[in-house]
Batch of 4 targets.
Target 1
Amino acid sequence: MHETENGVTIGGLAAAAGVGVETIRFYQRKGLLVQPQRTYGGVRRYGVSALARVRFIKSAQRLGFRLEEIAELLKLDDGAHCDDARQMAETKLQDVRLRLADLQRIETVLAGLVEKCCSATGDVTCPLIASLQAE
């Protein structure tokens, strides 16, 4: 982020973070990012700490954390609450593992249905459609 001594505008912050301006505003409404005071010229200026915070939020989202969870992680930002952060990560890891198991089950069922569809000949009912109608 190329920053003047007074910081960057919301557009500059968004560009540097790789997000849209509305994302910055959304984070502000959710209380994840502080909205700076307007300068004498009426423009809000964001510093490098705002960029670091947006990048933190995006990184946490890529790991599957919801915004509510990210807000909790941000409260632990002082580094003195490693156990709390670890517990949150363990909970998220357990959730990811459960979702992976569900996805593997779905993959197995879909693979079987696709195989049935490929082997069906003539004027038979589509095995995939028949299976979904039976649910």
Target 2
Amino acid sequence: MGQTQLLLVILGIILVGVAIFVGIQMFQHNSVDDVRNSVMTDLNSYAARALAYYGKPTTQGGGNKSFDGVTMSMIFPSSENVNGRYYIESAEGDNCVIVGVGNAVAGEDSVRIRIRVTPDRNTIEIIN
């Protein structure tokens, strides 16, 4: 009778350990997804501001139908927030690429998302 009870206690401990491990993994996965979605939302906001810069005449502080010379400080006062940090990868003519690096780690690297802004449409690419 004592061996059966000991076996059941050990089995119970193993099951609880597996349940805790699975719960932690699920929480981490959801955390990465939340950060990825937040960075995408921020990038869409920066893209809208970049398009506003693109459409403004030079006399009003805009690009006069060009992204040439645009910097993050021209689009938004801060290039970092609670979700991550953002920078302009390239900006020339009618094409601007903004990259967001999230605060969460996915695999062995941080969450990275790129948005390509053109006057016609925005294209989001999840790098990691």
Target 3
Amino acid sequence: MDIQKRILLFITRANWILFAAAVLVGLVAFQFDVALGIFAGGLIVTVNFHLLARTLKKSLTPPHLVSHNVIIAKYYVRFLASGVIIFFLISGHYVDPLGLFVGLSVVVASIVVATVRELKNLIFKEAF
């Protein structure tokens, strides 16, 4: 398996693992509105990541090549929908903004972990 597929598979799995871990820590260590913010933010960003991956896979696989304008339009529709959901969650005081921020960082954290993992593999592979 080449490095890009391995990283994508790792990030996809790590998203759900970090999401579940963050929600569990939020439920145990913080108030309910913080844990709900972590849940809502993590769910929003993880679902967006999976929808983006599915859109790119379908759009860039022959023979169903799609214009880049369609991909960008779908991206902005998801971005706008996420923004509206986040606005209503914060303005209605349903979630804690700090918890929401932590939840929205799940995909970034999984990308950082995947990068560190691949760098470690490359460094130790070259050392031996």
Target 4
Amino acid sequence: MDRVRLNLANPQELLEIPGIARAEADAIIKFRAEHGPIADARQLSRLLGRDQLSEAVLAHIDFDPADVTAPEAPGA
């Protein structure tokens, strides 16, 4: 199973997460544009107005921040 990189995903990719509706995907995109990456499940659940996220949702999400880049190769 591939996990969706929450902080890089477009709206269509966000809809691949079980239980995420179009309005929630739009809210995630808007939040990221205004505030930057979503840090963790607690922040995401608050954004979505939920007490907590289901295991099915969490199993499909990768919270790696969008601004992380790979280190340069030696000698680059």
